[in-house]
Amino acid sequence: MLFSVLATMAIVTQDQAALRAAPRDSAAQQAVLWQGDALEVRGRKLDYLQVWDHRRERAGYVRASQVRSTTLQPADANELLAVLRFVRDTPGQEALGIAYAAAYLQAVPAEQLDAEPFDAIGSMADRLARRAAQRAGQATPATIAAHLELVNHLGVRITHTERSGAGADGTLQPCYDGEAFRRVLALPSTPEQRARAALGLTRHECVDAALSPVQRLPLDQWRAQVLDQVRAEQFAQLPEQTKNRLRLRRAGVWAGLAFQHARRHEAAAGPAAQRALAELAGVNKTELSDEDRGDYTEAAIRVGASRWAAEGPAPAPAGLTVRTSAGQPGETCVALVDTRQAAPRPLAQRCTYGLVWAASARAHPSGTALALAVQPLDTWRELWLFHRDGREWVIDVLPPAANGPALGYVEFAGWVPGTERLLLVRESKVEGRARRSFEVARLDTLQTEKQASAPELLALFGRWQDAAWKRQTVSLR
Asked: pTM of the full predicted structure?
């Protein structure tokens, strides 16, 4: 990502600067220049510099006030680094900052090189990718596209991965490929630099939705290893806000690993889920910024979706229960049986490619219904409800949200004895909007009769909530 060696180089500091054919405003415009463009200076005339644009292979004139000149000699390294430090945290100045970082890498002697410029490049490239994804603020799509093209010319790769979840519609997510962050982790670096690198390399939104399960497990294992490269003694030196961000990212990654291991019937699923719960529990909620609160909710949903992996197998109860068996390759078939019968036969049966959490089965005291957690994706857990409709048994699937799958879980929270009602909790984040609701629903119609944002606002929740649910759930965080 280094510039070619130039006698004198000018870095453009303004967007949409004009490269003209002659040193006057009325001259024909040869090209539109953007902040961060590097030009070789070949002379000066009036208020203009005569330059050669190596990226476009074109000569011309540019106003001297729209550029800053340097010679890329070791004596200029400190000045370049000072400018880099000034612009690195300024939104909208990412392309300019990356250009100064590239110039600094060209000028600095090898023995003086450390992790700082790579930390700056990674942070700015990551922010530019997020700006490209949001398409918000004052920058127009044309400006962002120009900045992306410019940093690509400097060797900073912004890739595009397929978005997952509801509302994605096959759109692509811009993501920095993380090369500078990898260099930070390979070089001696401060705890904060290592933390930023680990967070930049492990973004959930940058995991390609098109990956197969075989590809996803090693990727999540690598992400967990990257996050653990911030060792305990380094973690202790971090600001509380950065500690929270690492805990939240670790919680989400380990929750995904719990799902991946569980679908392979591997013993590592339990420890992974316990690690996810521990990381979530370790978050200092008083030190969460507004932005971090959204990440906290997302991490809790990820952990909540896979939390059953942390629970051991439950003994089969007498009465209504479920039995699982292998179906087609990759399928699990669930049969509802009544163990009080002399020769139990399936009352209802259904097969799924999702992960069936048999330990979650909860039967109605009257033996007329049973709730079961089924997780088709690492971030999406549904509730299967077996219940009688006259003389027949039916199976209904309750999703966390109407428009999914994205991020969400729905879970059984208790039966209301003597009535055809059950208690539910739904939590989801779809299209950037998070929602958590505690509900009282009818068993026959599955319609929600009452709902609230907190369980204490519903009298039936206070009286009939399931004790095991209250002990295990993350919805009461």
From this structure: 0.91
